[in-house]
Amino acid sequence: MTDVTLKCGKCGSKQLQVEANPKDDSVVTCGGCGSTGSYGDVMRQGKAEIMKAMQRELGNMFKRR
Ligand SMILES: [Zn+2]
Questions:
Q1: How far apart are CA 43 and CA 27, in angstroms?
Q2: How far is the CA of 11 from the centre of ligand 1 (A)?
Q3: How far apart are CA 47 and CA 17, in angstroms?
Q4: Distance from the alpha carbon of residue 2 to the mean position of ligand 1, in angstroms
Q5: Burial of 30 (0-12, 13-18, 19+ CB in 10 A)
């Protein structure tokens, strides 16, 4: 299960407002600090964090053997 959580890069809030069918250049507005960014950037950031978390988990698994 990988679910990309959109998160504000500035304040870490997950209360981001974005249109229903966002495109890469759709504007995302943070409900926490009010900063804006592009949906594509926020998604890339979210995916990168998931990849990092997964690699960390895999690393832990191998260390336990
Ligand atoms: Zn924010």
A1: 12
A2: 4
A3: 18
A4: 23
A5: buried
Q: What is the pLDDT of residue 1?
A: 46
- Per DSSP, 12 falls in state -
- What is the residue-averaged pLDDT of the chain? 89
Report residues near ion ligand 1: CB below 5 Å: 8, 10-11, 13, 30, 32-33
CB 24 within 8 Å of CB 38: yes
What would the mean pLDDT of 57-61 be, rounded to a whole number? Answer: 92
The pTM of this model reads 0.72
**Which range among 1-15, 29-43, 47-61 shows the weakest confidence by mean pLDDT?**
1-15
DSSP state, residue 31: T
Q: How far is the CA of 62 from the centre of ligand 1 (A)?
A: 36
